[in-house]
Records
---
Amino acid sequence: MLRVCGILMGCLLVLVVLGGIESRSSPDTFTAAVLPAIDRNELESNDVPGNGPPPHTEYAKMARYLVHKAEWVSMGSISTVDAIKGYPMVNIIAAADSARGEKSTGTLFFYLTMLDYTAQDLSKDNRLTILLSMDQDLECSKQGVDPMEPTCARIMISGRAVRVEEGSDEFKFGTNAMFSRHPAAKHWLDTHNFFLCKLDIVQIAVLDYYGGPHYVTVEEYMKADPDSTSLAPSPLKDPFAPIVQQHSDDGRTITVKIQKDSPVRHINLEV
């Protein structure tokens, strides 16, 4: 009798242990069954091939670099809302110039919907300006550079929003680019009637160093290749690099040359 009771108690103990294991694993099993699998590639930020940003003096390449790495832009339009009609209006718009991991094209594609005020504004006046900052992925902040510093590059691109013709090769390319960078965009089309547009560029202003913005022509911009590598030091790390000192052979004369783009404007010497 005692032996039978012992066997029954042992079986009961095994069942309790197994039940505990099953209860601990079941939430994960339930989650995996209900929630769709997440592709890690969809969560990775877009990296531009090469050694990071180009030298600050290569303004066209800097503009292309920032456009290519951008996942979204600040887009300004002319408001059509009665209370602020004619005022500037700004919105955050998802964008892409190519599929993730592909080469830069320089052409920004983006989705708009008439349910949003930006599309309503642009339907009346399709002029717009976008702003892009190198700190979109905290590239500046991670190096201790405030996004307001000129060495944290930014660009302002003005142009017109143009709707891309459905079924065209450009439409297929832009759609693939947006779906690659923004997987959620696949649902926007069905639920909110989004349509694909591109930016027809008129002017490009680049501020990536001290001394004010530099203007890049559309031709220069389209010819630039941000995918090529460069070994030049980043202006984020050494803003006073463009200062050259030369010593004479007799050791009595020192010549200091300040390059055009240096932030230094005055030098005080004491002898």
---
Amino acid sequence: MSVLDLADYPWDAVAPYAATARRHPDGIVDLSIGSPVDPTPEVVAQALREATDAHAYPQTVGTPALREAIVQWYERRRGVSGLEPGNVLPTIGSKELVALLPLLLGLGSGDVVVHPRAAYPTYEVGARLVGATPIAADEPDDFPEGTRLVWINSPGNPDGRVLDVADLRRVVARARDLGAVVVSDECYAELGWDGAWASAPVPSVLDPRVSEGDVSGLLSVYSLSKQSNLAGYRAAFLAGDAAIVARLLTARKHLGLMLPLPVQHAMAAALRDDGHVAAQKEIYRRRRDVLRPALERAGFRIDHSEAGLYLWATAGEDAWQTLGRLAERGILAGPGHFYGEHFPQHVRFSLTAPQERIESAAARLTDS
């Protein structure tokens, strides 16, 4: 398979529903893609401005300050100690990493890439690009022989599902039996809401309770797009097995996959400042506290969604039918069809809309 064989971009299919929603007298409430709408924190913007004299090529490996900030962030925010600069690597957002990782790991025909049943579609795209076989499975016992890469996503996109320490240990144990690399997409880890995650941090695959102090075969991926409103900066990074990180670094050097130097400075500033992260979480909490009960009053069942940036809901009908009904009320969401074949009746609602738009959506949902 080549890039020329990729299917049409799925979000293009939502365009007719968006057109209907825009005709609403009070305008559209776009709860679909989940692009941040809140301001970039000033501490980050200032760091970017201070680094605009970027006349030289940046280093693919990242500046020493950025790598040290990533190491310190994992210890402070994720409970992962013992990492060194050689365990971490900045990336140009997380999507390019997800798409290219099977290629950079040398996977190909005959190899299996496992991803969650409710999954961000780029996991499958990356596997298919190299001729590997993507398989959707949540239970480690279902990971087949021939598995070389296991993607996990906690908190999940689209479903907000969290894997606890016991869940993660089972995944790691099975992957190690198979000789597979485990890559944990943890981009929503700062956004815990319900149950244990209302007060306890979401665990990382690198957590010593999971890894038992051995991060071989393990990678964690994180993005600053959501916690710091840096989607436009393309600011992300990975951490874990130093030998794998070194292999990825070599490949990325050859391919020219390097972050602009001003962005590296901005990332380091974002990672050192916890205040803006807490403030942004409270903004999302207020939106969630309005939207969730409105959806439930309107007849939706919310599944999982105990963490993350979305509400994963079903009205008990095909998602395209739900999208049509929502569009008539000026609301746009994402159909479960985009996230695999297992959830055709689910719809994903994003919390990335201004508070006024969230309140407008809530009123429309409950207006008989």
---
Amino acid sequence: MLNSTTSSGKRTGILAIGAHPDDIELGCGASLSYYSNEKVYIISVVMTPGCCGAEYIDCHKESQEALNMLGCNKLIPLNFEDTRLYLQIKEMISSLEYIIENETPQD
């Protein structure tokens, strides 16, 4: 069984980051499911809405449902422009730093 606390007693967790909805589920869904069963806190961040080529589908909603089934505790959908992430590196880093500082459990 995975030890879900550090030697200092702080809870460990996973921050899963995907460029598009379904990237996390397809890329590491089995691992997330395993760790959620081990009571590891999981936050998933999806950088884009994934609407390029799927204008009539709510990809974030589908992703939320799938990540919930896999045991993720929280989904944070961001709105960076699909297919243009390489132009938004600085802003994405700032967003992830904010999430790490403000959205992850500090206990």
